[in-house]
Amino acid sequence: MGRYIVRRLLISIPLLLVISFLTFILINLSPHDPAELVLQAQEVPVITEELLVQTREELGLDQPFLVQYIEWAVACLRLDFGESYVTGKPVWSILGPAFFNTLKLTLVSVAVIVLLSIALGVICALREGRLVDKSVRGISFFLTSMPSYWLAALMIWYFSVKLDLLPTSGMDSLASYVLPVIVIAISYAGIYFRFVRSAMISNLNEDYVLYGRACGLPEKKITKHILKNSLQVSVSVFCMAIPIILGSTVVVENVFAWPGLGSLSVKSILSRDFPMIQAYVLVLAVAFVLFNTLSDIINAVINPKLRNDL
Amino acid sequence: MKSSKMTKFLSICTLSVVLVAGCSSGSNTDTGTTTDTGAKSASKETKQEIIYASSKDILDMNPHLYSGSMPAQGMVYESLVENTADGIKPLLAESWDISEDGKVYTFHLREGVTFHDGSPFNAEAVKKNMDAVQNNAEKHSWIKLSTKIVSVNVKDEHTVELVLSDTYYPALVELSMTRPYVFISPNDFKNGETKDGVNGFSGTGPYKLVEHKVDQYATFEANESYWGGAPKVKRIISKVLPQGETTFLALQKGEVNMVFTDDRGADSLDVEAMNTLVESGDYQLVRSEPMNTKMIVANSSRAGNPVQETAVREAIWYAIDRDTISEQIFEGTEAPANTLFSSNVNYANVDLKERGYDVEQAVKLLEEAGWTRENSSAVRTKGGKPLAMSLYYDVNSSSQKVQAEFIQHSLKEIGMELELIGEESTSIANRRSTGDYDLLFNQTWGLAYDPQSTISAFTSPSSYLHTTSGIAKADELYQKIEDVMVSTDEETRKSLYADILTVVHDEAVFIPLTNGSVTMVAPKQLQGISFKQTQFELPFERMHFE
């Protein structure tokens, strides 16, 4: 098992290299001259050619492309993503707190999503085609179709203003998590429980279930086996949900005034803060690779057959 | 066996979640000393503090740079003199003398004033601050005084002398502005400068910054040793709420209890929402006198774009029904504007060509300029190029969006296609300074700045240079602006201003919409609400709870 994990982690290294290289190239392909952007961001009114040359030198932009990339990549390993063009502060000092704020929100949301999806998936699969199944699917369809900003505003109005139970926004206490987590969970759990449900249903028709029943195993035990086998697909889905939500909280963060990655990334893109955008893309890409690896490892733990696939 | 591995795995996962949560709470950036009561104390019971909603963070509070929130800077820092409805009045300077040639200003400073860190405010501090600003002169080129200051000399502990290269009539007005000529404790300087950041934010103002959680809130506490007497409202919190709907709900709940027009001139609530809050009985709505002109700025130097043509800009001007905007969108709270500056602004009472709402005239202008409808298509073309432009608006302003949609519809009728793009205010400000726009919403800078600073800004790349540089008489215009600022004769000044205003009016680069004011939704019990000459600051120190 240990060897599998090591091998799996080694494979992700070239992947990360490719991603970092692409991130770097993409930004460099942009038509804007970074030196000019820096000067504009500093509100220098008259940008002269000398000033541009001087700024390029300061930023190391006069170096060959590969040298620039290697210097940047090595610095990134130390979480040194350079300085923001706009504020002049180190990128990680701004991105770091925002990242952890969003990560906290994401992890709590994913935990709720996993619990909800499994519970609903199992219930629906066991009652396939019956009223419970139909109504759960109907309601979830309805809820996931609601735009999240609208749902969020409704929830704030009802739970915070009318009932005065929760704060409307901000990140002051544990109670602040409740509404944003519910809004995120509703939009994802409504989709993910279908994976659990359909996996369960297809497993229900497998021979081992028939065999188990024939042997007189109690139904509870059979369900446990089915669930474990069905979770393989879902594990990947759930693991990937973390980076997906990390990268898509902008609407929820805006409504709930959550000081996270979403609003920061939009701000950086609009102000063409290249080091910030680069770091953001890289952090998200690393998150995708990491959680993908994690899901493979979890699956290998559940299903030993997979350990030899590498 | 397997299940025990699973358990191990799950417990590792749980542990990492806890760790991450633990780490991140420590990584929040704090500024200054932390108080035990944060924004949490925002509840209906504690009514003695002001918690105002703002769409963005207070950002960098360095008063010698431009990214910080102006209402926040206005609470913490002060200038030598104050611009009031009755002219320039003393603030940190008790009195001043001006030499006969108008080039030397001698300020007699108020005695016994200290910065928030306890260090004395004296002539030495004034010199250090002024020098720090001048050492970064290129960033302050929009404020013409920065190009005129030759030296700042300490005469004695409380007397300081400002020497200018030319006579410059708006000198005192520009010294009164929220930034950059305000004073921060020299102890906060980095290497004797402020241009690369500062170590703290100790001003002399009525409030001091005690806590700042980036993108969450900033807490200001009353400066008990303020020279003008300790302010009655003891705590002011600026809370970041990016979305107008949330602001409205937070006001209803009482988590925040104030909202006002932000420094970019945008209101996060629409008129209807404000009225609802007032009807609830908890709030009052207070409006300042008209302070500025809200307008669309046209980029006359935009190469290859229809907006370069005077006829197109004039057609836009004619095609907008300002009465409808005033009555329907602002419910009569803002009056229609037909000129860049309303006639009560100094030097702005000038006879200008009248351009009302006249669709036929707009169509005629376009036809004459060669923009025709080929095969009765919806959009006019000229030489195969469509008559299409983009209009940028502030996403945090509910009224700008509605106006943009209304204008888009109006222009469609005359065969003009307008693409609407909503962005954050900082991004729009960036577009204005880089010239990366066709049309965008903007406003004149308000009574304290109009007309001299707004007009100076016509020549500043970070402001309206791109707007004005594409017009035929640009060079002549800039020369006149240069002349008017140094003119000493009142009559010459009048005639120069008249010429300047006529040129930009005829070229229709600033398309006025309405006269805006500062709007404030405040708790019903809050008394003493007033406004300053500048729309960017509020006199919190004069407010008190009943």
Automatic annotation (TrEMBL), chain A:
GO terms for cellular component: plasma membrane. It is a multi-pass membrane protein. InterPro entries: BPD_transp_1_N, CntB, MetI-like, MetI-like_sf. SUPFAM superfamilies: MetI-like. Residues 99-295 form the ABC transmembrane type-1 domain. The chain crosses the membrane at residues 9-29, 105-126, 138-159, 174-193, 233-257, 277-302. One of its GO terms (biological process) is transmembrane transport. PANTHER family: DIPEPTIDE TRANSPORT SYSTEM PERMEASE PROTEIN DPPB-RELATED. This is Nickel ABC transporter permease subunit NikB. It comes from Paenibacillus sambharensis. The lineage of its organism: Bacteria, Bacillati, Bacillota, Bacilli, Bacillales.
